[in-house]
Structures are given as structure tokens and as C-alpha cells.
Amino acid sequence: MQKPTIAKGTRDFLPEEVKKRNFIIQKLKKNFELFGFSPIETPSFENLSTLTGKYGEEGDRLIFKILKSGDFTRKIKDWGAGAQSLATQISDKALRYDLTVPFARFVVQHQSELIFPFKRYQIQPVWRADRPQKGRFREFHQCDADVVGSDSLWQEIDLIQLYDFAFHDLEIPTEIHINHRKILAGLAEIAEIQEQLIDFTVALDKLDKIGQDAVISEMKEKGIQENSIEKFKPLFHIQGTFDEQLNQLEEFLKPSEIGMQGIEDLKFIQNKLKNHQFLSSELILNLTLARGLDYYTGCIFEVKAKKVTMGSIGGGGRYNDLTGIFGLKDMPGVGISFGLDRIYLVMEELGLFPTQETRHFKVLFIHFGENEASEAQKYIQKLRQAGIQAELYPEDAKMKKQFSYGDKGNFSHVALLGEDEIKNDSLAVKNLKSGEQYEIKQANLLSKFNELKEIFYKA
Amino acid sequence: MQKPTIAKGTRDFLPEEVKKRNFIIQKLKKNFELFGFSPIETPSFENLSTLTGKYGEEGDRLIFKILKSGDFTRKIKDWGAGAQSLATQISDKALRYDLTVPFARFVVQHQSELIFPFKRYQIQPVWRADRPQKGRFREFHQCDADVVGSDSLWQEIDLIQLYDFAFHDLEIPTEIHINHRKILAGLAEIAEIQEQLIDFTVALDKLDKIGQDAVISEMKEKGIQENSIEKFKPLFHIQGTFDEQLNQLEEFLKPSEIGMQGIEDLKFIQNKLKNHQFLSSELILNLTLARGLDYYTGCIFEVKAKKVTMGSIGGGGRYNDLTGIFGLKDMPGVGISFGLDRIYLVMEELGLFPTQETRHFKVLFIHFGENEASEAQKYIQKLRQAGIQAELYPEDAKMKKQFSYGDKGNFSHVALLGEDEIKNDSLAVKNLKSGEQYEIKQANLLSKFNELKEIFYKA
């Protein structure tokens, strides 16, 4: 006899949580499809060699490796070789760490079956051997939409609109922050700190949180020279509308060819988006945004929910080369991702889950005895055929117990079908919330229940 | 540079496959909920100790074990201990092998949050280190519905109706085979071969395939005595309707108390089901049905599709004790399962997937140049807001290439918005299948497109 425990960093989802998560997922799917993205699925595990070396040293460490089945010890000669070397001998598969590398493998393997530009979305769990902590899990879902095979900036424009549509549908007002890898490169060029690009952007990224002075201190600590810092100081004072900021930035970046490429891209995007009536998002130029610099090569996005304090609830960007690692060259792409867990928390905080996700119109038939139950069964079939959720309490238990099941089980109504009702071809129905009672004739069964349903969801 | 391969026994799903799989899953969900089942989800991996010892020796071997993260070698003293012993030292987690054991763990851990009888459904992948072969995969979905905390036979009645509803919804005519563990035990008792119950039922299970003589030979080989075989020979000749067969069987089983309990159960179920108008299934008493004898204790079900040659597409049964292994006693249950992969094959064979799953009403806007693209963008936003899938070809490519993308990408229509159309506030739209062309005025955009949509799905 074992006391059961759940694996560290993983979660069970109870019915109400599953329904709320699915509510979000359904909205995302709907909008992905509206924008022409098609769903694909890849296996939960990949050959180990497909995943290793793709996520940096830290990533390799966090990949969950699966032990070879059968006698994995057979071919091992040196057990003292150390964990890292042994792991690749006793394991040949690993759990998906993200959706991007498996997608790259998918594109290469199925290239002849796909039409490019290929627009796919994928909503599946990924696994990371991170140390679990509040809000960080070892199993979580990623929801990604990517276009591969096109370097047109119209894709970026479309993805920004997709963010706007999807979050509008979820009723979450958002800020969509945008930046460009080439603008960051241009700034580094002008300040002559190209080699310190990462240190520079990591510090810059903290501007909102710690302020200008602390950012400058951190840069100095990282060895960025005073005269370099002086060069990009004007950055801290860029202000105004998106266009105004972009113009000031353009002045500043004129000497940098790469920087000007970034400016051109953002101008094009911003200009075209003037035709888009943002539904509930705002596009914000954010020069401190610096995510995924190791693989993004163009635009970078990040989405923040307004009105709540929460990290980003989405992000993405353009990458030049998705599939080169697997031998297929010249496959540029751009993609965005939605953070399911954080979106869930935002929606809880803002009270955005519709009541239908927690309240249900469903009917419990009280069990009076074998004959009555048989009669109830007939009613239940009719209701179910009309799409109304109905069930019979399975036993001839005490009324109190049956009513309590109805109450705790979130039934909206109980139906009472005793001897008298059977004689009269009728049903006594009670609304468990309001206490109201109705007598429903068998002949009017469906029309009456549809009426009750309407009343219930309006209330 | 790596040539990518997919892990052995796993599958990628392309968009059309995902859509068809989701079509089945949506129908199952709808019916599960109609019958009062609520969705839960459990993690993909469990602590190793939760899973080992629950599926027999063969099962333990087929569980995918996950290597401990960090230095898994640190605490190992004897590398020569053999694979089995080492595995439990270097691994502490394993991938879900089925949905039942994790569900048992879930029920025990969340017992105070659940209302019993607790009716849950769960649709999630499971993993088995089986040798891959045609139609057998290392990752596949299980779709289970179980009720725990009630030993009422009304649950069996409900589950049979659920099978009927769900397969009717999928338009698959089926036979629902039913048997009872206690009837099999009764037969064994009468033939005085209680100790050989498994051999007896395994042989009996082959009656359809190999015939009476071969079944008897196999029984003899397994050491079942001639005089025992004589005793249950009358079984082979039971005939008639469900009721008639049950009556003959009752005569036969009279001397066996346990056998008669099985008869009573089936009589109750069959009797109550006379109130159920089967939508497209037939209930069949099948004495040779003997699945899951190591855990089922009451009714056993199996579903076969009519009109196709295919193994069972569903199965289930009653078990006395789901959670005893985790210390929670007296938790009876009954459940059924739907075989997603086989249902998919049946539906392909019978041509049951609706055309909407492969044909889409979606509009590709041809890219004529930057200005035209900007105008197209406005139309596209309007269409999308009305729920119509529309997109812009991302580049000013040659017409032939753009039309080919529309064609291969399963677009139903292309929209042409050139200089002339912009001047006239109109749009030229072409149906890619029929070749028909329309001129649509901006003022009538949505009404016209909704008309086209109707025409398209009717055609």
C-alpha cells in the first residue's frame, strides 16, 4: 500500500480547470485558423540527437532523457565515463523541450508534402527539468504559430494582427511590444560595443524595473566603457508616438547600415498597420526588448496584459534559418507564441472566464426506486438526444444524499419523477439555485426544458 | 548537419490528419459531457513507483523510464546490478502507460475535492515501449470514461447508452458485445476448472476465428480434461435472441452461485435497456468475450464496427477496487474506452469524415504590389472579423505561383484587387474549383461572402 504522490513540478487538472484551459485553447485555435494557420502535431519524444545541442548547454541539461528499453547496460564499457557521456549511451530518446526544433525536423522530413509559405500552429505540452517554483512547471503547454518559407514583412504584420484578434477574443487588453534585432545591433555598432551586445541588451532590458542609473551601473560593471555609454545615452530620452520615436531613432542610427535596415522594417510594418483598426491592443516600440537574441534575426515581439502585473503573456520574432541544422537551407520564418498558463492567471485575475465554463445547465433525475428509475431513463434519453445534459442518480439513496450530489455536482436542476408524476405523464423540476419549481408535461418536455435553459443562462 | 528522423514507433500528424482526429475527439467529448462526465488531465509522467508493479511483468518492461536529471551516477554503488535494478536507481519517473493508474492516483489525492460517484473522462496520450508494427505505436491516445464510487448497475446501462450515442454521432453502426466475469467464473466452476479459468477463456475467445473443434483441441493441450469439456459443450449451441440465450445460460448455470450473480446482472441491464431505443448499435451477449480478466470483476464490454474488418474499437468493464493499491478502499468503478486510431481507420474506410474537414471556405488575396496589398489588408480584416478565413499572399510574386499556392493550399476562392477594382470599390473573386467569377462591391462584402460560403458548402 502506497501513499500516492504526483511527480515534482507537474500538475493534475480538475474538471473546472480543464474547461477553462480549453476555453482559452479553443479561442486560440479559432483565431489561428482564421488567419490561415493549420494544426500539426509531433510526437512527445524525439531521437535524442534531434534535440541535443539545439538549446545551449543549459538547455541540454534540462532535457528529460528516456532510458533505452531492454537491457540498456549491455553495450556500456566504462561506467565511470560520467553522467553526461553515459546518458547518451543509455538513452536514445528525449521529451520535447519546445515546439520549434521538432517543427524544424517536421518541415525537413515533410518538405515535399507541404506548400510554402507553410503556416502551422501547434498546441502541445513540452517538458523541462527546471527546478520547480511558483508558476514554473516541468510540464506545460506551448501554443505556437509560425510561418516558414517567406521573408515578407507582411507576415509580421499579420502576426501582430493575430495577437490583436486573439487577445481581443479573450477580452484581454494588451500592449504588443516590438523591437528589432538589427536596431539593437545598430545601437551596439554606434557605441562600438558589438562584442558586448548581449551584456548591453540584458542590462537595457531592466530599464523599466531598475531605472536608468542602475542600468548604466550594470553596464559599467560588465565592462562597457564610459564613452560608449555616453554615445547611446540619448536613447533614454526618446519620446512621443510610435512614429515620432522611430524618427528620433532613425536620426540616431543613420551611421549604422544594419541599424537602418531595422528602422526600414519597423517603418514598413508600422505604416501598413495604420490600416488595421486595433481591436484591443496597442503597438509599442520598446528598444529595451531583447528576447531570444541567440536565434531571432529580425523583429522581436512581446505581449503584456494591461491592468495586471504579470510577465509577458506572449512573444516571438523572426529567424533567418529554421531548418539549416537539419540540412535544409534558406528557410526563413517568423512566429509567435501564447503563454497558456499566464493567460489563464490573467483571465482569473480579471474575471474573464464566462460563467458557462463553471455553471452548467444540467438535470439530475432523483432515484425513487426501480420502476421510477426506468421511467426516468426514457426522459433522460429524450433530453440527451436534444443535447441536454441529464443523468439519473444511480441508487435509491436517501433524498438528502441525492440532493446533496445535485448541489455539489453543480447541477442546475433536479427532476422528480415519482408515482404521481408517472400517473400524470409529468415531471416536477426544481431549480437548485432559485428554488423555483415547475411541473412539466411530457408532451412539452423539450420546449419547456429549452425555455428553462434560456432562463438559466440569462440569470 | 543532421538528416532528421522521427523516433521509432511515433508519428507526425499533418494538418488534415489533425483535423480528422479532432473531429472524432470533439464528438466523443460532446457525448461524454452529455452523459455527465467531466474532463480531467494528469501529467505525462508519474513517479516511477506509482506505475511499477501495476501492469504485470510485461507491463513493467514496457514502461518508458525517464533518466534522473543532474548527476544520476552519483549514488550508484554497483554498476553490475543489472538493468532492472539499475533502472530504479537512475530513474525516478516514467511516462504514463495507461490512463487508469494515474486516474486511481488522482482519485486518492483529490478525494476530498471530488463528489462521488465521480464521473470523469480523459483523452490523453500514453506511451508503451512495444515493438512497433503496423497499427501499433509507441505513443497513442486513450479516450476513457469512468464512474467511480458506485456499484449500481445503472452505470453499466448508462455506459452502453453512451457507446450507442457516441458511435451514432460518428455514424458508425456497431455491435456492443457484453459478457460478465462471474458468468465465466460460473462456467469454470461447473466444469470444475476454476484453476484454469485463464486458459479456458483464452481458448474460448478464439471461437469465432478458429471454430469449435480447434478451440477444444487448444483446451485439451492446455490440460483441460475431456469430462470438463463435455460439461460446457452445450454452451456452443446456445442460440436465439439476447433473452433466449440468457434463459438457456441460466438453466446451465443454476448450480453455480457466482454464475447466477452474473446472470442476474445481465438480466437487469438487458431488461432496463428495453427502454432505450438503440440509435445504431446492437447489444450482443458474447460468452467468448474475456478481456481484462485480471482486473475486471463484473460486466465486460467490447465494441466492434459493423461492415468493416477491424479489431475492437472500444472496450471496458467493471472493477471492484480501483484505488486499493493506493490505500483507498471500497472504491468500485466501471469504465469504457474508445480506440481513437481504429475509429479513425474505420471512418476512413467507410468514408465518414465530413467534407468540411478537408474542404475549407477560405480566400486568398492575390498580391499585386504594395499599394494593392495595403487595400487588400483592409478587406481581409473585415472578412476575418466576420469569421471568414482570408489571407494575403505575402509577396508580389508571379501570378502563376500565387494561384498555385491557392490551389495546393486548398483555398476555395482567390480575390483579385488591382488598380481598376480599387477605383470601383470592388473585388473580383474567383471560385478555384468551378472557375466561376464574381464582382463584389465593397458595400455588399459580407453579405456576398456569406452567400458564396453557403453555395460552397452545399456544392
Automatic annotation (TrEMBL), chains A, B:
Its main location: cytoplasm. GO terms for cellular component: cytoplasm. Residues 1-394 form the Aminoacyl-transfer RNA synthetases class-II family profile domain. The keyword Transport does not apply. Its EC number is 6.1.1.21. It is found in: Cytoplasm. Keywords: Aminoacyl-tRNA synthetase, ATP-binding, Cytoplasm, Ligase, Nucleotide-binding, Protein biosynthesis. It catalyses: tRNA(His) + L-histidine + ATP = L-histidyl-tRNA(His) + AMP + diphosphate + H(+). Homodimer. Belongs to the class-II aminoacyl-tRNA synthetase family. This is Histidine--tRNA ligase. The lineage of its organism: Bacteria, Pseudomonadati, Bacteroidota, Flavobacteriia, Flavobacteriales. The gene is hisS.
